[in-house]
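Entry type: protein chain
Record version: 2
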Amino acid sequence: MRQWLPLLNTDSIRMRRLFYNLLALFSIAFSFSASVHGQRPTKALVDQLLRDDSNAADIVRNSGYSTSDVIKQLTAKAVDLDGDGLAEFILSGLICGQNCSHWIYRKRRNLFEQIPFEGSFLELKVLATSTNGFRDLRASIFLNCCEGGLETYQYNGSEYKPTICKIEKYGYTDKRGVYRKYKYPRIEDCE
């Protein structure tokens, strides 16, 4: 770290960009920790998830995970999606490849109720806009090395459904088969 200090103290724009790029890489590398995206879910919430989602329950059953193991695999982000002053919970984790499964729950009395929405995403953000009383959601999806997806989900009165789909392209393959990177990602509509 000591050898980096002179670089950080200079006024060079190039060095600042290098520092911020390194900082961004480190934050991406550690983005899956619960302290960054939320907290650990309660046992009651995990039990309800396993009752509601047969795929998740099968994975847990076949893997030999205990409920405490599942709690360690999940994060729960508390967000007021419907503006009623009570937090809904966005669960993520458990079933991950490049993208992780996400579920939304709200607590009513002493029970957790699932808001119909399931998906496997790299990241899920809550937007400032709302539809039918619930905040809109933006999902970032890993597709492959050269493309990523962006989907906007809106509440239709009973569940969240994707309404806008975009592909973020980072480059292309030319006629000679050489991959060329775009200077800036290009956003196109999904086909």
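Comment: The chain has six helices and nine strands.
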